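sorry for the late reply, my laptop died twice this morning and i had to redo everyting from scratch. anyway the thing you sent over, i finally got around to it. pasting the sequence first so we're on the same page, its 401 residues, then the predicted structure underneath. double check i copied it right bc i was rushing
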Amino acid sequence: MDYDVVVAGAGPVGLMLACELRLAGVDVLVVERLTEPDLTIKAGSINLPTAEALYRRGLLPALQEQQQLMLQQFARMAGVSAPAPSGDVASGPTPAPPKRPPIAGHFGGILVGAENVDFADPEFRDAGPASSIFLVNQQTIELVLAERATELGVDVRRGVELTGFVADDNGVRVQLGDEEVAAGWLVGCDGGRSIVRKLAGFDFIGTDPEITGHQAMVELEGAENLTLGWHSTDTGIYAYGPIPGRILTVEFDGPPIDRDAPITAAELESSLRNVTGADVTITKVITATRFTDNARQATTYRKGRILLAGDAAHVHSPFGGQGLNLGIGDAVNLGWKLAATINGWAPDTLLDTYTTERHPIGEWVLDWTRAQITIMRPDRHARALRPVIADLLNTPTAQPT
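ok and here's the structure:
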């Protein structure tokens, strides 16, 4: 074998998995078709289990500085003083977490006040230093994990596209352009349109999209006509902030005709005006993406020596930044099990527990995002449901932990 494992995809999930494998002495090759990291605006925060996973790997100090910058941006836009840094999370007693923003999150665009979340609950209280990290974006996570992978000696090749593979009981021969690589295992961490998933023939079932969403960082005129936060209108949903220039719109007119077409300032401006009714002009697009609520999941995450993780295994709308956290959880669960199998101290059947344990969590997340779409619809029934859900979300005893 040239490598024990080939990982397709150098996003946060693929890099996290590669780091986990390398820590166990596994030879890993990560291939990524993109020549540079994707700077498109994506998830802006992480949940506690993800923070705990990164803390266990000694990565919190690398995230702390970036979080402070995000908190400063948040405070500047909200017109308040930025919270002070929380101190060194690498050693010593657990530092006091930085003061969190007044909004703890949202469900379907319904804001949840931080004052209604019981952070003294055991689910939060015993988290230790991990509780100090929450507001770091996906690009930061990817950068930190890429640096860590390099330190560990992971072979990461960018600008290399996986074009095919042949798998049997003994291994996988992976075609990378004109080169063929022999490996024991292949893991698809190559996103929602995963070539690994498609070529391996995984069933990918779920529900069709009904929305067109845009998320972007822009420069615009008429920003004073927009209101910070999430808002429901007669024509959809929009969000402005929490950092300057960040906009999000959701329109319930079906999926985009061409998701791959270049996103223009005119398209974003039209969507923003349609949903908000505000007189705004977008003068510059810094980064932008389209999204839908296509919600699908592989029926199994393993077929022989081929495995899936992250968006390759499950796709859904991006509300709440669920995809990043769900994918990191996949990588952590799979990493030690695959390493144990390769190193010979666990039976091959251990890998079957990867699907058993992670598939129900993915299924839950898909339904969680579908529920958000339901209460975001601009119809009378959904609009009647929103205040009911809002009352529940802002009742401390009803808060999910």
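Confidence is low (pLDDT under 50) at residues 89-96.
thats about all i looked at so far, will dig more tmrw
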